Amino acid sequence: MEAVLVPDGAGVVCAKPSKGGDYLDGAVAPQSKEKRYLHPHMIDSETVCAQERSAPGADKRVLDRGFIKDLVRESIEKKEKKIDPIGIRILGGIYCDGLDLVGLDIPYSLVLDRSIFRGRVDIRNFRTKGDLSVDNAIVYTSLLINRVEISGSIWAQYAFIRKIEIADATIKGAIRLDHTVILDRLIVQNVSVTGDLEIATSFFSHLEIFRNNIGGALDLSQSQARCSYDIRKNEIGDMVAVQLGFGEAQSSETTNASETNYYFKRVSDNENFGRAPSNSSKNRNDGYRDPYDRYTETNSRTGEMIRAAKECAFLRSIKPGTFVFVGNRVKSSLCVRSHRTRLPFRRQ
């Protein structure tokens, strides 16, 4: 079963595998019939964590940074508390101090979907014979996945992550980062992935893909970079980059100088980015066809962070609005078309 953490009742609801998200989306209040549980980006986790420090245990959703390690250790020490082969599946947790998975070696999947991580998620020297999943999660700092061996896939779909780095890793499945907002840098470096590296329909400031061996397809279709794409020295099975592009730049003049600010651009129902109007937008992700629409909602902390992002560092002297594809070897097919690489400038 999946442990679905909630702020009311006993603090946990048991759901069938892959059904916990449906429960959170479908539950309504008995009187008002309004949606009972908010999506993670609308939860005031800062207040929850402040209350937890003054009154520990008040909110059952709050889990310690080392909780997963303790759970695995207890399952090893106590035979009557063995973990089922489907793995550890905890939805809706709030990790005020982040998460520590350093050195963990498990024979099953670890699923932490719809979680909120206010501190760094540190996954180093980690091994699993299953999947690692943080779908629909909010990571307010960094997600670091270094020196890992994963027999399944990495899942971080429909998520909001400030910065993600996957380096020196072996992934026998795929890496799924589609429909996700990465506010700062998305780095994939020295990684061997048997399947696809899926980044389609995602938003990020800088994309850096260096010295990887990608057995399947590198899919960047309908993605958007606020600053730059930098792809170098990779072995790639197939490359697909259809209708990708950049955000927008706004120039403004001050008393002494002029400056340019770089922003993400809303592209829902924009045919230039492949988002033609559709009547079938309702799906398991609350009808959001673009992650930008979800995470820029009014009164959300993620929306504040996205709107505040305006500077672009010149990494390796690459100017904003640049797509770099150098020294790569594509074994099968390369498809790059209908790209939107020009940043429109507006003077304020």
Notes on the protein architecture:
By secondary structure, the protein is mainly β. The protein has 2 domains: 1-152, no CATH class; 158-348, no CATH class. The chain has 5 helices and 28 strands. The chain has a 25-stranded mixed β-sheet that branches. Mean pLDDT is 90; it is low at 279-284 and 342-348.
Measured as a percent range, the helix fraction is 10-25%
Low-confidence segments, given as residue ranges, are 279-284, 342-348
Main structural class:
mainly beta
How many structural domains? 2
| Strand segment tally | 28
Beta-strand content bin: 35-45%
CA(first)-CA(last) distance: 55 Å
Number of helical runs? 5
Shape: globular
Please give the largest β-sheet. Answer: 25 strands, mixed
Q: Name the average pLDDT.
A: 90
What is the radius of gyration? 21 Å
Features:
about 350 residues, mainly beta, 2 domains, three-stranded mixed β-sheet, 5 helices, disordered C terminus
